[in-house]
Design goal:
- By secondary structure, this protein is α/β, with parallel strands linked by helices.
- Helix content is about 45%, strand content about 15%.
- α1 runs antiparallel to α2, α17 crosses α18 and α23 crosses α25.
Length: about 750
């Protein structure tokens, strides 16, 4: 009956006393089940813990046969206990034996019990076990009794997570919380990283579970909720998200949940049952997460990220812990849903061994920086944040696009050997650093690096690159908190020249707008930002911004040659307007007695297909051309390069794209205009092989790609390859799969890829 419950707060106080006693784990569990049974006037209380093999093992019981402890087990989905674990929800039955899922275990002696209440033991929505009480009488347990048992299960969850009961596991499967997990994703930055997990948005670990003063805890919750609501209101009023768009929709969803009385009421109820404010947030979100993870509704599953972020935000307000206060290990593997380039650069590169993202794409800017820094990265790893705990061992395989959480010893050994092998291979590439980039048939190549930050510059020397084929000037703007002034820009560009020495540097003017949003400039909401107001379009419409940059570049290049190219040029008239702006700035410098560059060469990034139909005109106007293969490919295929559903659908080695690339190099050769490929295509040995076969001799790539591409090129007879490749690209002939052909050619001629 209702009056039989002595109260969850009293139970929690007594549990705290048991948790503080200096006793071993089994004795502590045994005392806990006795305490719960007495408090709830139950004849049976049992704890089942989930093992790594998907089996729930009886770890402690009061009322059932004690000899069944560590002997009785059920698979997930088997019996009432297995059903609770599978569905992550409570089960309250007046007559358990009549339930179709009831499974009789004769060694337990539970056949005489009818009433059954079981709740999952949850942590961050993950099921760690099941807690059960039973009575002989036919009865349904009251809501407050269910609540009391769920609250108690949370205490046991923390005990399991702390590793206290791991020693009780018999020889064989470990606990599920420590189960090795292997997840697949997209390889974004090559390399192998071994280390320990660091959450980019760390979960607050609740150490204080039991409330001393209920009114005080309710006040803490109410105050934190108000602060979260206020901060969301302020964020929504900021001008960069004041209009409609995806960011605003997410914040509106956050605010809707933050203002939902039902959500707040659940947390308040948990506090009244004896939990602290932070434990109440953890309890409610863990229950919500468990339900949503098992939902078949894709919309609900997508909203789980939003709810997790909001609960984490609320938890941080309650405990007063700002982001970034956690210790950073020497071998950190960063785990995040997504991140921007500035956030990545906040971390200590020397301690960062790898990055795992639930989102991310090959061309987002954090990926570009990871490649430049040589940090292995895997993206599109669904559920990565959920399955990992801080300091868990993790292996990031940036070559295969795989992540191993809590790997088995043999997996660790295999990857350690792989790391040693890679180190030996890198040593071979370093030996090629000063070797000429010359093919077997004597064609001299120019292999340069892509860069964008000062941290990139030492890699030019280390890789033996011939210069910088693409310096992305917008990176400085993206990591700054305000618009960089002329002097700041000039200082950066001068340091780039100093690092390059007598090697050439090609700067790209600001490529901002679209997906490259600067927090201090007003953004424009666009349906298709990649094809919107960005790059040279924005620069010509905001000439003050472009003139400041050009002026800084001219100052920095004084006495040297300035090579500057303009991105996303779609017509000759755009290039002509940009050249006129540069000429005006040169006249300004001369008029005021400033030293000017020894020479100025201006070019275009060829990445808009319309320029293919003005090639003769543009080649007559420019000093050089750089093929931006990333954008050119996405526009030719009408395939958003950031769309994960399309990431593997279209192949840059397709016949249509290779024909377009061949036309560009042929026309440039006829016009005697130098041409470089500086997109991602140039940095992959197989794709670089195709480019050399088409006739390209200047490639610019991430620093780590110089060695592999040079090794490939020095083994290649370009004339032989062209004799096989070019006939396949003739109109009217279907050549088959070009990737397969090129891979087979490399194998047949011992060309390392």
């Amino acid at each position: 009956m209702r009056g039989s419950l002595a109260g969850p707060r009293l139970l929690l106080r007594r549990l705290r006393e048991v948790m503080a006693e200096p006793i071993d784990a089994q004795e502590r569990l045994d005392k806990i089940v006795v305490l719960i049974a007495a408090n709830m006037v139950a004849e049976v209380c049992s704890v089942y813990v989930l093992r790594a093999d998907g089996v729930l093992e009886l770890y402690a019981t009061e009322g059932l046969n004690r000899d069944a402890v560590h002997q009785t087990s059920l698979r997930i989905g088997e019996g009432l206990v297995g059903l609770i674990a599978a569905e992550a929800r409570a089960l309250n039955l007046p007559n358990a034996q009549n339930h179709p899922a009831f499974a009789y275990k004769p060694e337990t002696g539970e056949e005489i019990y009818n009433a059954f209440l079981g709740v999952p033991i949850l942590r961050s929505g993950r099921t760690l076990g099941v807690l059960v009480v039973q009575n002989r009488a036919h009865r349904s347990y009251y809501d407050e009794e269910v609540e009391a048992l769920q609250t108690t299960a949370m205490v046991i969850a923390e005990m399991i997570a702390a590793g206290e009961i791991e020693a009780l596991a018999k020889q064989g499967p470990a606990l599920d919380l420590r189960r090795p997990i292997h997840l697949e994703g997209a390889a974004l930055s090559e390399g192998i990283g071994l280390g320990h997990a660091v959450l980019h948005e760390p979960r607050v670990v609740v150490t204080n579970l039991i409330a001393e003063d209920v009114d005080r805890e309710l006040g803490r919750l109410d105050s934190a909720l108000e602060k979260v609501r206020l901060s969301l209101d302020q964020m929504m009023s900021r001008r960069e998200i004041a209009h409609h768009g995806e960011h605003r929709e997410v914040l509106e969803a956050y605010l809707m949940v933050a203002q939902d009385r039902g959500w707040a009421r659940k947390m308040e109820e948990a506090i009244r049952n004896g939990l602290t404010a932070e434990a109440a947030v953890e309890r409610v979100q863990s229950d919500t997460r468990a339900r949503m993870l098992r939902s078949v509704d894709p919309y609900l599953r997508d909203r789980l990220h939003d709810l997790d972020d909001l609960a984490n935000r609320l938890m941080r307000e309650i405990v007063g812990r700002p982001h970034g206060t956690e210790a950073f290990p020497d071998d950190a593997i960063l785990i995040a849903r997504n991140m921007g380039p500035a956030e990545l650069l906040d971390y200590d590169r020397e301690r960062l061994r790898g990055i795992v993202l639930e989102e991310g794409s090959p061309t987002n800017h954090a990926t570009i920086i990871a490649r430049a820094l040589g940090i292995p990265m895997v993206g599109q790893v669904a559920g990565a944040v959920s399955v990992v705990e801080e300091k868990d061992p993790v292996i990031v395989d940036g070559d295969a696009g795989a992540v191993h959480f809590r790997p088995m010893a043999e997996i660790e050994r295999a990857y350690a050997e792989k790391v040693r092998f890679r180190a030996r291979r890198q040593a071979q590439y370093r030996r090629l650093r000063n070797a000429p980039a010359t093919t077997r048939d004597g064609r001299e190549l120019t292999l340069q690096v892509n860069a964008g930050l000062l941290v990139d510059l030492p890699h030019m020397e280390e890789s033996g690159a011939a210069g910088i084929g693409l310096f992305r000037t917008e990176m400085l703007f993206m990591v700054a908190h305000s618009l960089p002034r002329v002097r700041e820009q000039e200082e950066l560009y001068r340091r780039v020249y100093e690092a390059a020495g007598d090697r050439p540097v090609t700067f790209r003017s600001l490529d901002i707008g679209g997906d490259k949003v600067l927090p201090y400039l007003r953004s424009v909401d666009e349906e298709n930002p990649a094809m919107g107001w960005r790059a040279i379009r924005l620069g010509l419409d905001r000439p003050g911004l472009l003139r400041i940059q050009v002026r800084a570049l001219l100052h920095a290049a004084a006495g040297r040659e300035l090579r500057l190219m303009f991105p996303l040029v779609s017509s000759v008239t755009e290039f002509t307007a940009a050249r006129a702006l540069v000429d005006k700035e040169i006249r300004h410098l001369k008029r005021h007695g400033h030293e000017t560059p020894e020479g100025v060469k201006l070019g275009v990034m060829l990445e808009v297909p319309s320029l293919l139909f003005e090639l003769e005109e543009i080649l007559a106007a420019v000093d050089f051309v750089s093929v931006g293969s990333n954008d050119l490919f996405q526009f030719m295929m009408a395939a958003d390069r950031g769309n994960t559903r399309l990431a593997r659908r279209f192949d840059p080695l397709s016949v249509s794209f290779l024909r377009a690339l061949k036309r560009i190099v042929d026309d440039c050769e006829r016009a005697h205009v130098p041409v470089t490929v500086c997109g991602e295509l140039a940095g992959r040995p197989l794709e670089a092989l195709a480019l050399l076969g088409l006739g390209y001799q200047q490639l610019s790539m991430p620093p780590a790609a110089i060695g592999p591409v040079k090794a490939m090129a020095r083994s290649l007879d370009v004339g032989r390859l062209r004799a096989r490749l070019l006939p396949r690209l003739e109109p009217g002939r279907w050549p088959g799969n070009m990737r397969t052909f090129l891979s087979a050619y490399a194998d047949d001629h011992d060309i390392p890829l």
